[in-house]
Design a protein that fits this description.
Blueprint lengths: L13 H59 L6 H10 L3 H29 L3 H17 L4 H17 L6 H20 L4 H30 L2 H12 L2 H20 L7 H8 L2 H24 L5 H22 L8 H12 L7 H20 L4 H6 L6
Helix pairs in contact: 1-2, 1-6, 2-3, 2-6, 3-4, 3-5, 3-6, 3-9, 4-5, 7-8, 7-9, 7-11, 7-12, 8-11, 9-10, 9-11, 11-14, 12-13, 12-14, 13-14
Length: 388
């Protein structure tokens, strides 16, 4: 009688187990490779987005060092480049205020450090004392967080690295030099902060259109899992709105502080004004996505006419995004949005709550988008007639 061991090539479970383990290992390695590639691409995109600031900081640091050596005759003006980088490290609209904060914070720290070196000398007790006094004094002066920290840091530097009375003043002069050079260089602003609000707004519209497409597809197929993904996608748009807010502030800071860019103020302000209606449209999109999810869970029917309206609105939103990418405000979409608003008012109300809410949110989004075309809210609202 022939005896076979488990795992022989007779269909025993050993080989399938090995095959399963091999496939699982391959799948894990494939996912790891894909995630690593996606992570590398994100890091590269982040570097590309910051390369000008990196170069600007590097060049400004070198200029601050050279100027402090040439004009102030300081052999080692290390805080000049440090102050320059700290000042340039903030978004453009904050640089003037933060540069002044750095200079004042350094002045307070240097003054306190210099006085305590004369009176008490150096040592661990003196370090604790000078740090506490400098930061307290900066706080009493109404300083911000950066100024308070700079006061403490500079007091410690003076009392430890420049213990000779009077040498601490050079540190403050180096800092002022670095701040001045940074603010001067910052006025020669690149065009990137002016373009970014427009590009971010276009990306938000592009994603809004894609989310509407996904919602319509999920409702047509009755796929509840796809509905959950639509809701998650709609909620993820908040990060882009925050990015738009920061980009708008920086763009406005550029044109207000740089004499070379002030002529761009009307255009930059117009793009910054897109933020509020985009925020409203994104909020309404989230409500729509949530109601789509509920409709799919409850297996409620959404009329095809509503889904067609959703498709047409998505196409219009994509057109608006294209206008922004082409350096135009999306005013050309106004007629299409007005027609969609009129068409929505002629639709019959459905029998289910979810469908009615979806239609209401589509009408609200149309109103929000009309504001992007240059209408104020009352006028935009009047262009979307009441339901027949």
């Amino acid at each position: 009688m022939e005896h076979r061991r488990p795992g022989d090539a007779d269909g025993s479970p050993a080989m399938p187990l090995i095959r399963q383990l091999s496939l699982h290992a391959f799948d894990v390695s494939e996912r790891t490779l894909r995630r690593g590639r996606e992570s590398a691409e994100r890091r590269l995109d982040r570097w590309r987005g910051r390369i000008f600031m990196i170069i600007q900081c590097a060049v400004t640091a070198g200029l601050a060092w050279l100027l402090a050596q040439a004009v102030l005759q300081h052999p080692m003006p290390f805080f000049a480049p440090v102050a320059a980088i700290i000042t340039l490290g903030f978004t453009f609209g904050q640089r003037m205020r933060r540069g002044i904060e750095v200079a004042i914070g350094v002045a307070v720290g240097v003054l306190v450090g210099d006085l305590l070196v004369i009176i008490f000398g150096t040592g661990p007790i003196q370090i604790m004392l000078v740090c506490a006094i400098a930061m307290s004094l900066a706080t009493l002066l109404g300083a911000g967080q950066l100024m308070i920290i700079q006061a403490g840091v500079q007091a410690i530097i003076v009392i430890t690295l420049t213990p000779m009375p009077g040498q601490g003043v050079n540190r403050w002069l180096d800092a002022v030099t670095g701040c001045a050079i940074a603010l001067l260089v910052a006025t020669i602003a690149p065009s990137a902060p002016l373009r970014k609000p427009r590009l971010v707004a276009a990306a938000i519209l592009q994603e809004l259109a894609a989310t509407l497409d996904a919602a319509g597809q999920a409702l047509r197929t009755g796929d509840a899992d796809a509905g959950d993904e639509v809701l998650a996608r709609a909620r993820a748009g908040e990060a882009a709105l925050e990015e738009l807010s920061e980009a708008s502030k920086e763009g406005l800071g550029v044109v207000r502080h740089s004499p070379f860019r002030r002529r761009n103020l009307p255009a930059v302000q117009a793009y910054a004004d897109l933020q509020l209606p985009l925020d409203h449209a994104s909020r309404n999109l989230r409500v729509l996505a949530r109601r789509c999810t509920i409709a799919l869970w409850r297996e409620e029917t959404v009329p095809l006419a509503y889904l067609s309206l959703m498709d047409e609105l998505a196409d219009t939103v994509r057109f608006m995004a294209g206008e922004l990418y082409n350096r135009k405000l999306p005013v050309a979409a106004q007629a299409r949005l007005i027609e969609l608003g009129r068409a929505s008012s002629r639709l019959r109300l459905a029998d289910t709550m979810s469908a009615v809410v979806i239609l209401a949110q589509l009408r609200s989004i149309i109103t929000d988008l009309l504001e992007l075309t240059g209408l104020d809210y009352p006028e935009a609202r009047s262009r979307v007639p009441d339901m027949d």
